[in-house]
């Protein structure tokens, strides 16, 4: 199952399948967009994804289900659509998203983490994308996303070998933002999420939208909507509050309007 809770303006989505190192079942994949679609970005100014317990972020999709839910081409395509809906819901959530990674982050777990804006891991974390070890087709949209993040030679090595790699490599090739000692991971990620949540939410959502648009080809970019989001910031009460707080030498209190 996936558990969700809120602490102030920070949402926590917890992958909870401890018996199987938080392997993501079909039901859990379906839960992800259901939960995210229910969230109000004005209230949830930062969303953190993590695994339950201490052993794993997510050890991958639940392979044990594959004989039942991927036994035919039609079923496999249906399953892949469910996964893409889950990935897209994380990518398209307007507020910043963070993966807090500890232990195993393999296969579908790695793919899910790569949908978030920021990724922080404990020193003991392990990564890998092993479809070549299972004979699975790896969808081209996942490859396209990875191509925007990694050098072709790094991506080929990861996918050709299916090898597990550590945080040092993940940091070096650009998958991670930072690595922390395991006993400090939650505290450090919580501080980052809180810092984000205290900033002007309209500004952050505008920036996130524009960055995501510039990851597309130029003809696909919605410049009109980028401009509208900037205008919304300029005309907001938060702009007035930010300037006033600066002049009064106090911390601003942003309301997202």
Automatic annotation (TrEMBL):
Tagged with keyword Lyase: yes
Keywords, sorted A to Z: Lyase
InterPro entries the record matches: ClpP/crotonase-like_dom_sf, Enoyl-CoA_hyd/isom_CS, Enoyl-CoA_hydra/iso, Enoyl-CoA_hydra_C
Top-level division of the source organism's lineage: Eukaryota
Matching Pfam families: ECH_1
PANTHER family named among the record's database cross-references: ENOYL-COA HYDRATASE, MITOCHONDRIAL (PTHR11941:SF54), ENOYL-COA HYDRATASE-RELATED (PTHR11941)
Similarity comment text for this entry: Belongs to the enoyl-CoA hydratase/isomerase family.
Name the record gives this protein: Enoyl coa hydratase-related
Taxonomy of the source species: Eukaryota, Metamonada, Anaeramoebidae, Anaeramoeba
């Amino acid at each position: 199952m996936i558990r969700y809770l809120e602490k102030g303006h920070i949402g926590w989505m917890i992958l909870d399948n401890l018996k199987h190192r938080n392997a993501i079942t079909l039901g859990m994949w379906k839960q992800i967009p259901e939960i995210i679609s229910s969230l109000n970005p004005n209230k949830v100014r930062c969303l953190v994804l993590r695994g339950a317990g201490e052993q794993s972020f997510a050890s991958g999709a639940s392979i044990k289900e594959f004989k039942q839910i991927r036994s035919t081409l039609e079923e496999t395509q249906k399953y892949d659509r469910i996964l893409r809906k889950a990935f897209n819901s994380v990518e398209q959530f307007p507020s910043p998203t963070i993966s807090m990674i500890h232990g195993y982050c393999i296969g579908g777990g790695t793919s899910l983490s790569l949908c978030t804006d920021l990724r922080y891991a404990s020193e003991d974390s392990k990564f890998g994308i092993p479809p070549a070890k299972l004979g699975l087709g790896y969808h081209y949209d996942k490859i396209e996303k990875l191509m925007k993040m990694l050098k072709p030679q790094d991506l080929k090595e990861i996918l050709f070998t299916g090898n597990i790699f550590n945080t040092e490599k993940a940091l070096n090739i650009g998958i991670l933002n930072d690595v922390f000692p395991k006993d400090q991971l939650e505290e450090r990620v919580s501080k980052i999420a809180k810092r984000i949540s205290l900033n002007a939410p309209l500004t952050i959502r505008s920036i996130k939208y524009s960055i995501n648009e510039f990851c597309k080809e130029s003809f696909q970019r919605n410049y009109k909507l980028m401009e509208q989001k900037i205008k919304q910031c300029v005309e907001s009460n938060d702009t007035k509050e930010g300037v006033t707080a600066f002049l009064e030498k106090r911390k601003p209190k942003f309301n997202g309007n």
